[in-house]
Every structure is written in C-alpha cells, then in structure tokens.
Specification:
By secondary structure, the chain is of the alpha/beta class. The protein is built from 11 helices and 21 strands. Helix 3 runs parallel beside helix 6 and helix 3 runs parallel beside helix 10. The longest helix has 16 residues.
C-alpha cells in the first residue's frame, strides 16, 4: 500500500466516529445548514484501546534427560532401557495408540478372533525380539500350521497342493508368533514406562541449541519439552511433518531421499465355518500370478469361525487401497471363493488395512534396496538428536530391526545400556534366507516379513 493510499484508509472505528459526529451535527443543526443555533462542542472520538499484549510463549516444561519421538518398538525399547539406566525420559507419540506398526486387529471380528495388521511372524534367530518377549513373559506359538495342505496357485489353470514339510522347508516351520497378539509386546513396554508415554502428541518442531533440544508437540495448544537428547523414530514417509531447526545435514537428508518404502495392504474376511478344512486345505498359500500370500491366522484360535487374510505388496497393495472401501471385502470374498470354492456361502464380514493410509506412518516398511549399509547416515546422530527405526537397521521390515536401532540409539546416549539376548539359535539368519531362497518357485517378496 502506498503512503497516499494509506492516508485515505478509513478504519471501522474512524468510520463509526465520523458517522456519529455527522449524525449529532445534523440533529443539533450544525450539519449542512448555516442556520444553526450556535456553536456545539464536537463529539470527542472514542479513545483507541491499547494493542493487546501478545501472550508469553509457553515455556518448556521442566527439562528431562531424553525425549523420544514415537512410541513404536524402537522408541519404546530405547526409552525402556534408558529408564533402566537411570535417565528421566519422556515419549511423545503422534497417534492415539502405542506400538507403531505392531498393531493387532480385534474388530470387527467375533469370538475373540484376532489378526495382525503389521508384524506377525518371528524367525527363530531374531534374538532381540525373542529376548524381550521372554523378558516380559509373553508366550509364543508356531506361526505356520503343520496340519492340512498349502495351496500354490501359479495361474488360473495351474494350482497344486504342498505338504507342510514341503512348504515350510528351509526353517519356516520354526517361525513363531505371539498368540494373544503382537501388540502385547509394545503394551508390555508401555505398561513398564507408565505416564512417561504421551499419545496424541505429534511433534511439529525440534530446535537445537547449546543446551540440548526443545520439542514442540501437541494439537491445538502446543506444548514444549526440553531435553538433553532427543531420539527421533519417525518413519521417513512422514518425517517432513517435523521442522528441524537448524535443518538436518545435507548427508542426512540425502539418505532420507534415497530410502524407499514398501506399501502393504491386508484384507480380512471372517467365516462362520472353516470350510476349506473339509477339503484337506489349511487356508494358507501363495498366488504367484498376482504376487500375494494368503494366510489363515486363526488356525490355532478356538471356535468354528475363522479368518482368511491376504498379504498384498507394492502395486497390488496400492491398487486395492485405492478401491472404494465398501467394495474391498466383497472383492476378496470372491477371490477367496476362487481359491476355496463354496467359502462365499459362509463368509460373514471383514475389513482391510492399508499402511499407506496411516497418517503418522505412511507406509509399511523400508525396502531392502538400497541396503542400510549404503546409507549409514540414516543412523548417525546430529548433535543431541539421535535416530532410530527399522529403516535405520540391518533388519528392515522386522521387529528385530526396530529393537536393534532403538538399542543403538540408547547406547549412543548411555554406554551402559545392554541388549537382551535370550534366544540361543543354531541357524543364522543368513543361512536361513539362503535355504529359503533355494526353494523352487519362491519369489523374492515371499522372503519379506
């Protein structure tokens, strides 16, 4: 606005003052007519109120030793071990639930049936995962069933059955699960941490200064928390929701850009009866033509009802996630009926879960390519800020990677933090993968968690 224009500007208060003065003048005969009754004192303008004093910025809360951003497994294990080492820790989680990707679905299923949205299977050499399961006294059971036959579908015209001995060769017969739900593991950590964990508290800004870090978090009336250190476990697809001041190093940002992610969508259908079992099938198998697995996660859960679920990757996962939500379950009722004829008749209802639609996560897990070793900057600290998450580990897509990275970040802050290693195994992961990869017709994506 120019200076001349600025002089012509009439604000609302001046307009009202001028209007009132003209009206009074008209009433008293001092307006347009020169036949007034005499001089009249002008109406004094209303006093201009003082400008409101801006509120004082919210001071940071009493400082803590460590702020952990994210209550997934990497953040929870880091917080848990740092508390055990004597540190004052706060965990702030953006969503309203803890566990990150370790989420178990209990609704809309009946009879106490459950299925996993995220991590479900645990190889026997994942010592950190099994170590913490043992540490918290959580029971495990076999992931795959030894009953019935597995269905292998190459295309519409080619399908075959495989015995458990054939399908599970290479060590998969020893893979485990948490029968009460994978979320029992993050719940155990959160119970131990108590009110140190705050959900519904997304971090929007992280400021470094000479004394540590200040994190701004919360929705609406933002709060601030000061810490000597901060561990950021935010998945890279959504890390841009945090403003870092000063900005992270160019090498760190380049490593973020170089890391790709795998999208996963799972569709679940509940059946009144496990009709596929009457034909000798166990509800598990692979569809090679479209590239997805199907599981029967309730094979060892009680009652006549059962759940079949699909495990979709990449482009297929994106395509299904983009469908009309109301059409997804019915589409898979038809797909499963093609695998197990007659199952449509006993289908009841279902649901789906797409990781790309989770606002504080954004994708299922970091891709194995490029390797973490090619971008070690993903894990390197920047001053008092440390980084963790399965993407910053050698075990991408596994709970083992979350634990590995969380413990590494905790050790960077306190060298006395030790790892839980309770599972003695005879076979290394590398040996197991080589043996699985030697199975005919097993595609690379089948080696994913």
């Amino acid at each position: 606005m120019t200076a001349n224009n600025k002089k012509k500007t009439v604000n609302r208060r001046n307009f009202l003052v001028r209007g009132v003065g003209a009206l009074v003048a008209l009433i008293l005969g001092t307006g347009c007519s020169d036949k007034g009754t005499g001089p009249v004192d002008p109406v004094p303008p209303e006093p201009t109120p003082p400008e409101p004093t801006p509120p004082e910025p919210t001071p940071p809360e009493d400082p803590v030793d460590v702020i952990v951003v994210g209550a997934g497994l990497s953040g929870l294990v880091a917080a848990y071990e740092l508390v055990r080492a004597g540190h004052d820790v706060r965990v702030v989680e953006a969503s309203n639930k803890i566990g990150g990707r370790a989420q178990t679905l209990r609704e809309p299923f009946d009879d106490g049936l459950i299925a996993e949205a995220g991590p479900a299977r645990i190889p026997p050499d994942h010592d950190l995962t099994l170590g913490y399961i043992d540490h918290f006294g959580i029971e495990t059971s076999p992931f795959y069933t030894q009953e019935g036959e597995y269905l292998i579908v190459s295309d519409q015209e080619n399908r075959r059955r495989e015995t458990p001995e054939s399908f599970l060769r290479g060590g998969r017969d020893a893979w485990l699960k948490i029968p009460v739900g994978t979320d029992a593991l993050p719940i155990a950590f959160a119970d131990a941490l108590g009110d140190r964990v705050r959900t519904g508290s997304p971090v929007s800004r992280v400021v470094r200064d000479e004394t540590g870090v200040v994190a701004t978090y919360g929705i609406g009336d933002a709060q601030k928390l000061r810490g000597k250190h901060l561990i950021c476990t935010v998945p890279l697809p959504v890390i841009d929701k945090i403003v870092f001041d000063p900005v992270l190093s160019e090498a760190k940002r380049a490593a973020f850009e170089a890391t790709s992610y795998v999208d996963v969508t799972r569709v679940y259908v509940q059946y009144a009866q496990r009709s596929w079992e009457s034909g000798g099938l166990n509800g598990w198998g692979v569809v090679f033509e479209e590239g997805y697995e199907f599981w029967h996660p309730t094979w060892n859960q009680g009652g006549p009802r059962g759940i079949l679920m699909s495990y979709l990757f990449g482009g297929l996962a994106n395509a299904v996630a983009a469908m009309d939500p109301g059409a997804i379950v019915s589409d898979f009722i038809n797909r499963f009926d093609g695998l197990f004829p007659g199952s449509r008749e006993v289908a009841e209802h279902g649901t789906h879960f797409a990781w790309e639609h989770q606002p504080w996560i954004g994708s299922a897990f970091a891709s194995g390519r490029p390797l973490f070793s090619e971008h070690p900057e993903l894990a390197s600290p920047e001053g008092p800020i440390h980084f963790a998450g399965e993407h910053a580990s050698d075990y991408r897509g596994w709970m083992q990677g979350a634990f590995q990275s969380g413990l590494r970040a905790a050790k960077e802050i306190d060298a006395t933090v030790t790892e839980e290693r309770r599972a003695a195994v005879a076979m290394s992961r590398r040996q197991m993968v080589r043996r699985i990869a030697g199975i005919p017709d097993v595609p690379e994506w089948l080696l994913l968690p």
